[in-house]
Design a protein that fits this description.
This protein has 457 residues and is mainly beta. The chain contains five helices and 36 strands.
């Protein structure tokens, strides 16, 4: 490092926000003796002061082969000895320009020496990097250098380096601190494919290559049922990956894991973006996340430099809400139950039928199952008769208890656990006493409607 070299430290925020960088007035040269420009014969025809790049058109990274175009940096004279030189009638101050391998005037003196000169002291410049340059170029951490020469012997130094100092950082652009996922259909649990939940876009600004590390804050997913009962599920049933190939898919754990199949390299604009996703197999989704309620867990992310010296953390709270849903389905083949009374034994002994899997139940809450009739009496041709509904008794396969049918709901299943597409066999019985009450009734068809319903508990 030489004292006369020009060091311009570019703030992290300008790179992160892609906003224009403007330096403070910066000393580039000093002038201890002169007060006027060089002129030709008869003090006419000035020699304009110039800058020329000796190292080519680009700024070169001092520890790698990377470079930045010379156009990335603009400069303009700010003062000589504390004020701008006199322009006289014909002189002028050029606008902002960038270094070139051709000589560029940084001030246009008046045509004659009578137009005025300048003060002794520091020769200061203002430097700029336009916002568009931050968006278009790749600024890697470290120093970018360009060798410059100038043409006035009395200005020192004659040769110097202009060095852009780029800080090392990784920093999250997106701040998705919460992710809400809602499941409102039982069909989500009938699908056989892996469930995919997007965590939305992740964007990280950086000047160093980094890896994407992630973990869960706990080994368990916290669960609160729709009735306020707490529980847990293993976080290992959830995997983290991404849309595309940006991340390797792995099961979550409470320990940080590197999900990057390769380093995220510094790219143009100094940003990398990808779309993290959560994956749950159809079986794990059905077995672990079926019950209605709220499942919550926290994800911890870290964009860490490849040497782990720089870290940028972000946490995302994930909430999966499963809405209470229930279904009772009776297949078309089981919607009619017929009793034929055409022998003496039918009237003396009664009859019973077991309809296998007549009811298909789905309920993601604990529940009770009820049965009732639409009326308290059988009908004939749409008209009420005096045959009481309670001659028909209903019970479930696996239970020895039968319940007389009435218009008042009867609880036929208690403490039912959450279930998906569970088939229940139903037993319909007209016992001997009920069958004997039919003796003497008109030989015709009598019917009654049977209804099944849930109540969540």
């Amino acid at each position: 490092m030489k004292a006369q070299d020009v060091y311009l430290t570019i703030p992290e925020n300008n790179i992160f926000n892609r906003t224009e960088f403007t330096s403070v007035p910066t000393r580039v040269m000093t002038n201890a003796n002169r007060t006027n420009w060089d002129y030709g014969f008869f003090l006419i025809g000035p020699v304009a002061p110039t800058f020329t790049s000796l190292s080519g058109p680009n700024f070169t990274h001092t520890s790698s082969s990377f470079s930045l175009p010379g156009s990335t940096l603009l400069w303009q004279l700010e003062s000589m000895g504390g004020q701008l030189p006199s322009t006289g009638i014909s002189g002028f101050l050029p606008g902002f320009q960038s270094f070139s391998t051709s000589a560029l005037k940084w001030f246009e003196p008046p045509t004659t020496s009578l137009g005025g000169g300048f003060s002794r002291g520091n020769i200061n410049f203002i430097f700029k990097i336009p916002a568009a340059q931050f968006a278009a170029n790749t600024y890697r951490a470290g120093n970018y250098s360009m060798d410059i020469t100038q043409n006035y012997n009395d200005f020192t130094p004659r040769n110097f380096k202009t060095i852009l100092v780029i800080p090392s950082f990784t920093r999250w652009v997106t701040t998705s601190l919460t992710k809400y996922i809602e499941v409102s259909s039982l069909n989500d649990y009938r699908n056989t494919g892996t469930r995919v939940f997007s965590l939305d876009n992740a964007e990280i600004a950086h000047t160093v290559d980094f890896n994407f590390w992630a973990k869960a804050a706990s080994t368990n997913v916290q669960f609160t049922s729709s009735k306020g009962v707490s529980g847990t599920r293993s976080i290992a049933s959830i995997k983290l990956g991404s849309s595309g190939s940006a991340l390797t898919t792995k099961a979550l754990s409470a320990n940080f894991q590197n999900f990057s199949p390769a380093n995220f390299s510094v790219a143009a604009g100094n940003r990398n973006s990808f779309s993290p996703e959560l994956y749950v197999s159809s079986e794990d989704f059905k077995n672990n996340f079926f019950e209605a309620g709220t499942y919550t867990f926290e994800l911890n992310f870290n964009a860490a430099s490849t040497d782990n010296s720089i870290n940028s953390f972000q946490n995302t709270a994930v909430q999966l809400k499963v809405i209470p849903r229930s279904e009772i389905t009776i297949p078309s083949s089981g919607r009619n139950v017929n009793f034929n009374f055409n022998t003496a034994a039918h009237y003396t002994d009664g009859q019973s039928q077991m309809i296998a899997n007549q009811i298909v139940l789905s309920n993601n809450e604990s529940f009770e199952l009820y049965v009732k009739s639409d009326e308290n009496y059988f009908k004939k041709g749409g008209l009420q008769t005096n045959i009481n509904s309670n001659i028909l008794q209903i019970g479930l396969d696996g239970s020895s208890v039968d319940f007389p049918l009435s218009k008042t709901p009867q609880k036929i299943l208690i403490n039912g656990a959450p279930v998906l597409d569970r088939g229940l066999g139903v037993r319909y019985t007209i016992p001997a006493s009920g069958a004997q009450s039919l003796v003497g009734k008109e030989n015709t068809t009598y019917s009654i409607n049977v209804y099944y319903s849930f109540t969540a508990i």
